[in-house]
Task: inverse folding
């Protein structure tokens, strides 16, 4: 698989300025390298302040590295002349849908992106319809956004990104404010876009069960890359993750405890697999 | 007599407009002193509306709320005094920090209660300590704090009033697992050591399962269930039909029970599940556990 995003030895710190002098610098990303493959579903985990959201904003050049470089399909993220090209390739969805919705009608909101890209009206119509159908919001196209549930609003925000036809969507805790049903809706939308439209997905989350649905999980800790592996393998490091202030899905945790607390790369990471796992354990022991 | 008695509460938004919507429909519930109540329900089920009526922020369209037997909305009752007794921590409470130092912000409540300066000082320090806010942060501007510290400061502002009932509306949204556990442990402590009544609204079924003694389930403005946590979470399908889930571990154990294994339904934590499953494994191996 081709690399879509290449992160090469990236270092970044937030700075306090006084005139032009740097007063204070807080290092957030510390010499990190990894690649995101085309069509991949990648989850990023890390505690609050670990640098995840900073990294998210780097994927489309909203923040550029102090040292090292980020390449998006070969384009450097700090290439000012090609900024719009990068932004049309990588779309960002944030935690609070209320902060990203600009229009008073759902379909107008979704049209906002393509309108700004100068897409012809007829094509905008097609893109909006297609995007709304992709997130299952087509029947709500004439609704006012404030009449929607949290999950519906967040799906509208995702449709607004899809209408710009990006190759990659970065979602920064998109389900943090949603109820269980809204979370499930957004997660199934994300998975569908990844599988059916082959859109590369980078999901930042605090919910371990959401990360378990990804193809690959990267754990960031204090600006360093801690683990980079498949969810099954990542969540088998129960002790390590807990030491770094993270958690594992309850399915992996109970299996881990029943195994006597040994690290094992075959831990179940969802509830259905866990039931099978325990049944097997109870029958074969 | 219950500490808090809610009788036939009804409330609608946008009355008289084409957008009129009934948020609460004839809701009655009793909450006793010292209980830890979890409140769950999908978005728009009426949770926040109900919570805002418990301390008189919203006035009922019909029905009454009694605190220690007094109707809180009766004209003779000073609603301000009710709010000192029923503290409400909103979602994202850090957005409400407003004063120029953390100390002043936390002292706002106690000062309005008319306490002496010494008492205010004492309350501020103990509230800050309680939420795990370092003392050197007290004289900083709230805006110099990290996100997690801001949230703690905001919660300390309510705790400093030492309300008899404290309501938390999704206190852990946006926090990482460590921050989540820490905050919930503090809330649990407030309940245990001070014997206060805690009402926790959350979308995290795992958190509700771990801490709440009883769970109130709201659906479309009505109370669907109000029972012991174990009993509520053993009703997987009913919760599912309301757009809610049970914790992963509860689902797993309920499934095993369904398959005929000798485990109890409504298991709420991984530790509990471990005990039950380990017992089965030991029995199988013919060992004693």
Result:
């Amino acid at each position: 698989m081709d690399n879509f995003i290449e992160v090469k030895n990236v270092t970044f710190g937030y700075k306090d300025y006084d005139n032009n002098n740097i007063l204070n610098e807080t290092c957030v990303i510390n010499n990190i390298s990894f690649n995101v493959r085309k069509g991949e579903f990648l989850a990023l985990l890390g505690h609050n302040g670990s640098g995840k959201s900073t990294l998210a904003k780097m994927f489309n050049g909203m923040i550029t590295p102090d040292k090292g470089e980020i390449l998006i399909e070969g384009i450097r993220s700090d290439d000012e002349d090609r900024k719009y090209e990068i932004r049309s390739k990588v779309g960002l969805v944030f935690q609070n849908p209320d902060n990203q919705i600009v229009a008073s009608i759902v379909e107008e909101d979704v049209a906002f992106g393509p309108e700004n890209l100068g897409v012809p009206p007829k094509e905008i119509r097609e893109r909006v319809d297609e995007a709304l159908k992709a997130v299952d919001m087509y029947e709500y196209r004439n609704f006012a956004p404030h009449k929607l549930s949290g999950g519906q609003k967040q799906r509208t925000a995702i449709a607004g990104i899809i209408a710009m036809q990006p190759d990659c969507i970065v979602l920064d805790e998109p389900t943090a404010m949603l109820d269980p049903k809204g979370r499930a809706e957004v997660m199934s939308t994300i998975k569908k876009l990844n599988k059916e439209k082959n859109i590369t997905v980078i999901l930042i989350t605090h919910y371990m069960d959401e990360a378990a649905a990804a193809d690959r999980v990267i754990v960031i800790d204090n600006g360093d890359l801690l683990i980079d592996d498949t969810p099954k393998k990542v969540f088998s490091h129960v002790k390590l993750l807990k030491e770094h202030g993270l958690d594992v899905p309850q399915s992996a945790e109970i299996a881990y405890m029943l195994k006597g607390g040994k690290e094992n790369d075959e831990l179940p990471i969802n509830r259905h697999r866990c039931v099978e796992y325990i049944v097997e354990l109870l029958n074969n022991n | 007599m219950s500490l808090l008695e809610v009788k036939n509460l009804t409330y609608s938004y946008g009355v008289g407009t084409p957008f009129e919507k009934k948020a609460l429909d004839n809701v009655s519930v009793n909450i006793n002193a010292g209980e830890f109540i979890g409140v769950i329900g999908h978005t728009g089920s009426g949770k926040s509306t109900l919570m805002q009526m418990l301390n008189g922020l919203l006035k009922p369209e019909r029905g009454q709320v009694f605190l220690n037997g007094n109707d809180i909305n009766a004209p003779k009752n000073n609603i301000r005094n009710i709010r000192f007794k029923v503290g409400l921590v909103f979602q994202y409470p850090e957005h409400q920090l407003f004063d120029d130092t953390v100390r002043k912000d936390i002292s706002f409540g106690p000062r309005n209660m008319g306490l002496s300066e010494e008492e205010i000082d004492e309350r501020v320090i103990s509230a800050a300590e309680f939420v795990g806010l370092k003392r050197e942060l007290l004289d900083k501007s709230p805006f110099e704090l990290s996100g997690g510290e801001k949230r703690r400061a905001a919660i300390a502002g309510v705790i400093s009033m030492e309300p008899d009932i404290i309501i938390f509306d999704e206190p852990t949204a946006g926090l990482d697992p460590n921050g989540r556990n820490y905050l919930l442990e503090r809330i649990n402590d407030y309940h245990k050591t001070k014997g206060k009544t805690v009402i926790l609204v959350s979308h995290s079924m795992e958190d509700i399962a771990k801490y709440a003694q009883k769970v109130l389930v709201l659906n479309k403005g009505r109370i669907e269930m109000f029972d012991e946590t174990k009993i509520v979470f053993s009703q997987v399908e009913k919760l599912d039909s309301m757009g809610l889930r049970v914790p992963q571990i509860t689902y797993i154990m309920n499934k095993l029970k369904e398959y005929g294994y000798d485990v109890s339904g409504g298991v709420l934590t991984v530790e509990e599940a471990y005990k039950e499953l380990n017992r089965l494994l030991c029995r199988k191996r013919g060992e004693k556990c």
Remarks:
- The beta strands of chain B are 4-13, 21-31, 36-40, 62-67, 70-71, 86-89, 165-169, 197-201, 214-219, 222-228.
- The first helix of chain B runs from residue 47 to 54.
- The radius of gyration of chain B is 21 Å.
